[in-house]
Amino acid sequence: MTDTFDQPVTIYDLQGREDAKINLRRMPNLVRRASQLVLAAGKREFIISTSLQIVSALAIGVQLIVGRGALQELFEAERSGAGLSAVAPWALGLAALTALSLFASTIQREQQQILGELVSRHMHGRALEIAAKVELAAFEHPDFHNRLQRVQSGSQQPLNMVYGVSGLISALVGVIGVSVALIAIEPLVIPLVLTVLLPAWLAASRRSSAFWHFFWRMTPSDRERNYVGKLLSGRDEAKEVRAFGLGRLLLDRWNHLFDHRLQELRTVARKQLLFTLLSTAVIGVLLGGIILLVAFLASSGRVTLAEAGVAIAGIAVVGSRLAGAGWSVSTLSEAGFYIDDFNVFLSMGSEVSPATEPTPRSFNQITATDVTFTYPSASEPALIGVSLHIDRGEVVALVGENGSGKSTLAKLLAGLYQPDSGTVAWDGIDIASVEQPDFSRQVAIIFQDFLRYHLSASDNIGLGRHEAADDRQAISDAASQAGAEGFIEKLPKGYETLLGPEFLGGVDLSVGQWQRMALARAFFRNAPLVILDEPTAALDARAEHELFEKIRSLLEGRTVLLISHRFSSVRTADRIYVLHEGRVVEDGTHHDLLAANGRYAEMFNLQAAAYLT
Q1: Are 254 and 262 in contact (CB under 8 A)?
Q2: What's this model's pTM, rounded to 2 decimal places?
Q3: pLDDT per residue over 27-39, tens digit each?
Q4: What DSSP letter does each residue of 412-438 carry, written as one string?
Q5: Which CATH superfamily is domain 356-442+528-613 in?
Q6: Helix axes 219-233, 247-299, angle to 10 degrees
């Protein structure tokens, strides 16, 4: 095995570190953008949570003022020898304010938790929207998967963003409320206490930057670890993992990747510990000096003992609030990196080319002209100068060895990929210039590795044309055409039976039955172009023969592009294109190609000889 951590270069390695710094000038814009996201996700919860935080923060200032009054009455009662009746109203007021503040804080935390879930849903939903919208080629780029991984795995970042915004608001309102009380005692204390903010913010912002860089740097390794975890826990993978005895090996690899992550995390945490200790020490020295100043003012008679006690309590509260504001800024700064990355991911949706031509609803001829295509992750083209045509109502076959470009060509004809050069056109309209989601409705395609939807049998077929999924008669007809009706009706709940054993009550199918469900989905789509990529690979010989005997009648009025390695399946096609190393090397009918005695004839005779022998 190659070294697990010899990762390819990522955008993190190419981006200048200075670009990722948070500075004070950026904070207003960052707070605005974060607030917009939070409001879009849960406006009601944000307003309630913020309002309650403001109430709780202002209550602290009022509590200090009431507390000063209570202390003054207490000292006066002690000097005069009077009872505590004068203190009682102040004490009751202070208790009521404390209870109100605690109640508001409890409701605020509940609303904040709900708001965090709403923000997480909003941001993840937007990310999934982009993932469903971008062109298929995006999934060939590691950077796309890295960004998607960060958006999906940063589940705490939306909540941190909420805490950052609300914490900053709470801290600032609390400082203002307490400052009102302190100004009445000694205005000089306020600017001195404000100095606490600087060391708290410097240490916290450095920490947020360091941990975000760690998060970014670990993305490729985290993706590999998640993949190894899926190999160990996935149902489809389980049989091969056990057949080859890979469990221990894969688990060791998973642990190795996690150990590497923890080692990197500890390194980052240790580096930040020194700065945190230093900032904490500075904050302690500053607050200690301010408290000594208040003690001096009290001893010199400039402030009363009651005022000194309230001032010391206020200093402690303000110092704590300002330190909290520094950490809130740090939290928001870290969330800012996430928001930046998130916005870059969202911008991928705007890279989809706008439509310039109306989507064709049918065609008389499909043409590919000098088409060349290279996968983003490949160094050599998968198709080179391919040209072909398909007439309406024809059955056209693509044959060739594995890796010759058959499936790639089918995906280009279906509009899933755009060629690097050349054009694919329906009656002269370049399909790269039409609305792709709308165009996809004109094509029914069944891939070799078709999906097995763990939904009901009816839904499995209805997904072929989801806007008509309630048409149960059409679903039944499609199942009948694909030869799936017989086994579906024998299922415990018929068409309403859940397929797949992963959910309670689910029933699994054989590979051949799953393939018939995929075929039924293609028939139900009712599109003018049907692409079948190895559509009978899992069917037995009799079922395959029966299907191809009926293919023209089943798909009458529609055009079929067939990809198969079985020459018994393609010999009846109207035209056959032979691909080799990404090029079309022959085309014609079965008889024409046999007579030409070229590559097609060689492959056909090899396959036929195996049966004859």
Answers
A1: no
A2: 0.68
A3: 667 667 777 777 8
A4: HHTTSS--SEEEEEETTEEGGGS-HHH
A5: P-loop containing nucleotide triphosphate hydrolases (3.40.50.300)
A6: 130
